[in-house]
Amino acid sequence: MTWVEVNAAPELIHTPPLRLKQKSADRTALNTDMYCLLKCSPLILAVAVCHGWLFGDFVGKQKELDEISLWPLPQKFQSSAVAFKLSPGSFQIVHAKQSSAGPSCSILVNAFRRYFEYMFGDLKKHEKSRKKVYDSDLAELQVWITSADPECDGYPSLQADESCELFSLPLLQLVYRDDYGANNINKTDISDFPRFAHRGILLDSSRHFLPLKVILANLEAMAMNKFNVFHWHIVDDPSFPYMSRTFPDLSQKGAYHPFTHVYTPSDVKMVIEFARMRGIRVIPEFDTPGHTQSWGNGQLNLLTPCYSGSSPSGTFGPVNPILNSSYDFMTQFFKEISTVFPDAYIHLGGDEVDFSCWKSNPDIKKFMVQQGFGTDYSKLESFYIQRLLDIVAATKKGYMVWQEVFDNGVKLKADTQIHVWKERPQYQDEMAKVTAAGFNALLSTPWYLNRISYGQDWVNIYKADPQNFTGTDAQKKLVIGGEACLWGEYVDATNLTPRLWPRASAVAERLWSDKSVTDVGNAYKRLVQHRCRMVKRGIPAEPLFVGHCRQEYMGL
Fold this sequence. Notes:
- It is found in: Cytoplasmic vesicle, Secretory vesicle, Cortical granule; Lysosome.
- Helices cover 31% and strands 19% of the residues.
- It contains 19 helices and 18 strands.
- It has an 8-stranded parallel sheet with strand order 11-10-9-18-17-16-15-14. A 5-stranded mixed sheet has the order 1-3-2-6-5. It has a 3-stranded antiparallel sheet with strand order 4-8-7.
- It is elongated, with a radius of gyration of 26 Å.
- The two termini are 37 Å apart.
């Protein structure tokens, strides 16, 4: 055997190899081992990607290069017309003998199984006929992890090195089926890494309950598009589906239904593990002091009684910020949340607080005078938020907040992530202010995908850039990414997935690919094919325009 070294980025030297064993064209015993260099912290990323491979001058079936439709577009990519057959009967993904991770590493075993199925369809269909199909030009993909600690039980993080992202996309998107039903892959050289570390999707499971199968299906779609954060807006005014062990009445009395429309502890654990296996973080959002009407159903005296004149009106407003019992509750609640969700961050919301109820309450008016707040109720909001942030900080968690918390001058830790979503002032101005203050910024303003319009609205989604604001290079580096948001007023299990995809794919490429990747015409051609890949995987992504998918007439 001979070693063929692959071109790799300078930072990837001295890192472990991933081998792909290739058979010669005449099926002789001569083999060539191919490997690509890896540098990965969490193992789920270490499985991954070939930075490229170089084959000899074998004769193979050619494929038109313009049919190659990688999405998101890699940082560097070059493909040849030389093609090689891949057969489920004679190609396999295996652990290299030298690898520090072996068959006991569940995260790798799970990845191998998924990727094989992605390439060849249902694995079970091939088990009985593996010796009956055509042979492969390529024999196996050997995954060699050389780090002393393969981190089989690791959890993805903001700091994770993704320079060798899961090989499912760079490898699997290159596998195509020819007119005779054979799977092929072209000789290709890829170097890839993400532009931004935080690439998220927000799903709202309060306004409409989202069954587990819908959440899991969209986590699968997220992995296909290289999203790495699931922002779970799990509760809000309409319902409280999170089943708390500490405060069971929250879901018993706050969910749409206490048994069918709740996420049990095992459900939450399943979502987190399913996401972890795909390199996706799960960040829960528990938004307070506003957006908490459903909380009050199961927690007595948590919300502020509203008044009509001198008498209670019978309605309630935001969390009551003047009672110690409110903070005692939050202390116990977020202590639980910090143990249930392993991510280093919790999203604490802090947006859209309606002050009218606070203004009507005589006890709160008296408190405002005592604190010297005058009639500025944003100071009362800041008072509450500051105490909440201290509570969460005591759990050793970092926090994300909506931009109002920053705008209102709340004292924040240096590692606070500010989530920009408002259209006024212009989000470019807000991004400049947040980063000028030294905080990490996330953008969502142009990516509220629940807002739909006729035609190809993905184009404007695609053109929006988180760093498109006036600021220094140091400020631009504080932009850690963004999120596409799908709020649930008009979205439930019946229409969530087609409304989200492939429009969210446009966000995915903006957050992954180089900032110079802006050609809408080229993006359209690739996105049409990528959408077809999603449909083939069972994801009901909407069409971009008139046309068809190749698998429609091939019976695939």
